[in-house]
Design goal:
365 residues; TIM Barrel; seven-stranded mixed barrel; seven-stranded parallel sheet
């Protein structure tokens, strides 16, 4: 896996944001006040200095982090690579609190919260040109006032940026309309989960009574606001049989959505705990998925497969399965050696089980 947290040494005592610069490509480039430039590399680490002070990076080749934006925690002696210049997969974890307890949650909620929005705003302004930044949690809209203001300010300052916000869709209300309208809605996609047409099934999956009803109300609100919505459905045993009914509901009641994403599970967090009762092996029974995709796409709505290794998908649907697993948690199995589609495939999650995952997979020759 790609390391997202690295060891550092610094004389500072408070959190701060920096961008690491080696300037190997263009030594004449101007320093930003938040930049630190590489001065020397030795056996003890790589030393950087800038307007804000100095920092030593330990245990990683400076070329691997050139241009990365770091959130440095001096007390822990660590730095999180919150925006990596060389990667399209950059997500800001704005909170670990959540008001739902989803059966398959890969990031189980925690009670504590640290407000890092000011640091994230600085980081966003230092991002490479044209970056799409993910926003995740926990549930980001538990702190929606800060979130909306963060999005507005970042998008106003950087017309080249865009955001992809993951939210359970529970906390929007009519009073938010003015704040959302101030955000450039063409550059924000809201990833919102709907797991079933059946309210009972959806509410059981998310562990919250009334969640389905509230979600539909807020999807209607987002429609009226002209927001871009990516509807997300994690494929599991409790909701697979109802997938065609959900597809019919989408085309009849939610035709305004930008995308419908059918997603495979992650074997981590609550997903690992409940894997044996939840995981649906689509490699052995894809028909219900295929029929649902066909219906939605026939009505002009984009529908995709996220987190599906190509070898687990029938050939006619492989073009709908882009490489969506983030590079830092993506692996390829020994079985992938020699696969002609490996370069196009998103592979497997690092923690996908070898012994009780897909029944049918392997190199495509």
């Amino acid at each position: 896996m790609i390391p997202l947290r690295i060891k550092v040494e610094t004389n500072a005592d408070q959190l701060f944001v920096v961008r690491l610069r080696s300037f190997e490509a263009d030594p004449r480039e101007q320093l930003n006040p938040f930049d630190v430039a590489l001065e020397r590399v030795g056996p003890e680490g790589a030393d950087y200095s800038g307007e804000g002070g100095s920092i030593r990076i330990l245990g990683i080749d400076p070329s691997k982090v050139d241009g990365d934006v770091m959130l440095v925690n001096p007390r822990r002696g660590t730095a999180d690579r919150i925006i990596r210049r060389s990667s399209p997969h950059n997500t800001l974890l704005v909170t670990e609190r959540c008001d739902q307890v989803c059966l398959m949650c890969s990031q189980p909620p925690k009670k504590h919260h640290v407000d890092l929005f000011p640091y994230f705003e600085t980081a966003a302004l230092l991002a490479p040109e044209g970056t799409t930044i993910g926003i995740s949690g926990g549930e980001p809209t538990l702190f929606k006032a800060q979130l909306f203001e963060f999005l507005r300010r970042a998008l106003d300052a950087r017309p080249d940026l865009s955001f992809h916000v993951l939210t359970n869709g529970q906390h929007f209300d009519p009073d938010d309309c003015e704040a959302i309208r101030r955000i450039d809605r063409g550059r924000v996609v809201w990833g919102i989960p709907l797991y079933s047409r059946d309210p009972v099934v959806h509410d059981e999956i998310v562990g919250k009574a009334g969640a389905h009803e509230r979600l539909l109300e807020n999807l209607a609100l987002m429609c009226r606001l002209g927001a871009q919505v990516e509807l997300r459905t994690v494929l599991m045993r409790p909701n697979t049989d109802g997938l065609p009914q959900l597809a019919r509901f989408i085309v009849s009641a939610l035709p305004f959505i930008r995308t419908w994403a059918i997603m495979q599970m992650e074997n981590i967090g609550f997903g690992r705990m409940n894997w044996k009762t939840l995981f649906y092996d689509s490699s052995e029974s894809f028909d219900v998925v295929g029929r649902s995709l066909d219906l939605v796409r026939s009505r002009g709505i984009d529908a995709w497969l996220y987190n599906f290794p190509l070898c687990t998908v029938p050939e006619k649907y492989r073009h709908l399965a882009p490489a969506t697993i983030s590079d830092w948690k993506r692996v390829y199995r020994a079985d992938c050696v020699g696969c002609k589609l490996k370069d196009e495939c998103g592979g497997f999650f690092e923690w996908h089980p070898a012994n009780h995952g897909y029944g049918n997979f392997g190199a495509i020759q």
